[in-house]
Amino acid sequence: MKALAALGIDVGSSTCKIVGVDESGELIWHLLEQADPRAEDQVQRFLKAAEQKFGPLKAVPFVATGYGRKLVKDAAKNITEISCHAKGVYHELQKPGTLVDIGGQDSKVIVIGAGGRVVDFAMNDKCAAGTGRFLENTAGRLHVPLEALGKTALSADREETISSTCTVFAESEIISLVAHGVAVEPILKGLHRSLVSRIVAMIRSVGLVSPLMLSGGVARNEAMRKLLEEETGEKVHLPQYPQLMGAYGAALIGLKNG
Amino acid sequence: MTESITIRGKLRYQLAVNVAGRLTLAFRRRRNERKTARPGWSRDVLAPPLKLSARMKELMSRHYLGGRYANGAKKVAWVTSGAPIEILKALGFYILYPENHAALCGARRKTVEIASEAENAGYSRDICSYARTDIGAVLSGKTPVGRLPRPDVLLACTNICQTVLYWYRVLADYFKVPLILIDTPFIYEEAHAHDVAYVKRQLEDMIPAAEKIAGKKLSFKRLKEVVRFSREASFLWLEVLDRAKHRPSPITAFDGFIHMAPIVDLRGEPVVIDLYRQLLKEIDVRISKGIGAVKHEKKRLLWDNLPIWFKLRKMAQTFAGYGANVVAATYTYAWGELAPMMDETRPLESAAQTYLHPLLNQGTGHKLESMQKMVREFSLDGVVLHSDRSCKPYSLGQIDQRDYFVNHAGIPALLLEADHNDPRSYSDQQAENRIAAFMEILEDSSNAD
Ligand code: SF4
Fold first, then answer.
1. ipTM score
2. What domains appear along chain A, each with residue ranges and CATH number?
3. Helix, strand or coil for residue A155?
4. Which of A31, A221, B99, B212 sits at a 20 to 30 Å CA gap from B148?
């Protein structure tokens, strides 16, 4: 077993993740759970698990990120998920570029410069229609499991236009389409398109620097990747664990600052 | 229906404002001056509040107290913030600025309650929150200052936005009083002679209308005096703001937001000159002792747009917590930069010039130039653009301005979405998160240098 050199935790709105890295910055251990409303308990549980695996954590640098980062009392530092995602993705893909991170509660576009430095960012935290929640909500309506969303959307041979960009109104639009006998697949494809077009507008507002990279839970959705490629004309690069990039970046920052 | 001036009304005003009010407010000021701590003021990151704030507060309270007893003692005008008030002031009007009153409601966290009165009456939440606060106050009588005087005349100038036009029409209809409208053509590049002539003619036309309501003739001698006072106060205000060029800066832009009320509401009165002279003195003492308004000033920032009135202290503190001093603001500067245009020897023509040139009556390119100049002169490291949900004319162009700073000037810039007066369009957590990320960028960029 490799020795633990730093820990990073990402207390997000839908999931909570912890990552351990070794001396070389390699991701050697992680845990991921749905976010517990009692975030502090969850953090303690995670730390206990790390302790069981690696022994006492006293000397191990520990950095927190995510919306709940300030609740992590044991962390030596707390850093925004913008900087952490940038560091994590940069370390893994080894290139500057534009990172799109679509999370449960917000979505962001981060322009990463040399060394993983954040050059600029845009954030949508005002409207659920630009976030993972948009898909989650509507998937529930259509009784399609979250993991199958992307695949189902891509299997469509045509596409419905979902005109509304509001999550709640999109739901009623979907209900009416279903009531008119429209199949699930074209509706889902239209839904993905609607989310992607919002993201693309955000990318444009900061200016796209190639390559385009994707992180966050939604990165696992293949329809999002495909449509993002279609709309931007850029190939989308994915890290191995898109959901862990925030926690990974946090651990790397801890490692560097030791 | 307007109220005529009576001896009784004048007497009541004298007693309530100049005798009882003066004494009570002076007493309160002395008590405030003795206070060394303020609730929520974090001494670890900020220098103690400016001592002069207590005097400023006294002055503004006296102004609003005067408003409370103005009907029956003085003729009252309600005016927009960029209105040419010198003529009214010379005619002895009591002048109320609904925008400033709305800001006060914002700072005292009364906006939601008051603006809801307007919303319930059918005014959309998309309308500027100043307008909603004012209309709500008018409809319900709710105000933190006791009572607002009924206007005898309304003066609206379109040099800040078009909202004021419709807003003041609502007021005119409600109060059944005349509305004087000064139309200022938008300046795309520079003001033409015919623009100035056009505004000047409107000012000339305004004189007999205002005289009729005031019941007296305008004295040009007095008008010139008022213009002189306005000019002098504006120059002093500019000097106050320019002191922020020092490192560390003795003041923050938030101090500027707090202390700008007199230059807006009371310009043309000698007390403002006196007040800003004293403010300068206090600031100069700070400079000589090397005291910075932010205790560990590492970064210096520019603020664009109106402040978030209901989060003034919180913003000051949040930035200061990162060792950042927001030293300059386009908004506070706008109240000083026109000073050189004021000229008492040509009161009407120079007023036409001056009131054509507010920031919001000029193209967005002009604002960008002013911002670039401020970044240079105040040695700034970053720019915070408050994208104000309410103030469309001020927020227009910010995406391009931000783009310029980030991509062409290499200066980090943050777009902070909020509203100057409506807390329902603002979230602490989101704002803090953005500011934190922005400060990390600034921190990083200096490490990379
Ligand atoms: S829209 Fe802007 S300029 Fe107009 S009244 Fe509101 S805040 Fe002032």
1. 0.84
2. 6-89+244-257 (3.30.420.40)
3. coil
4. B212
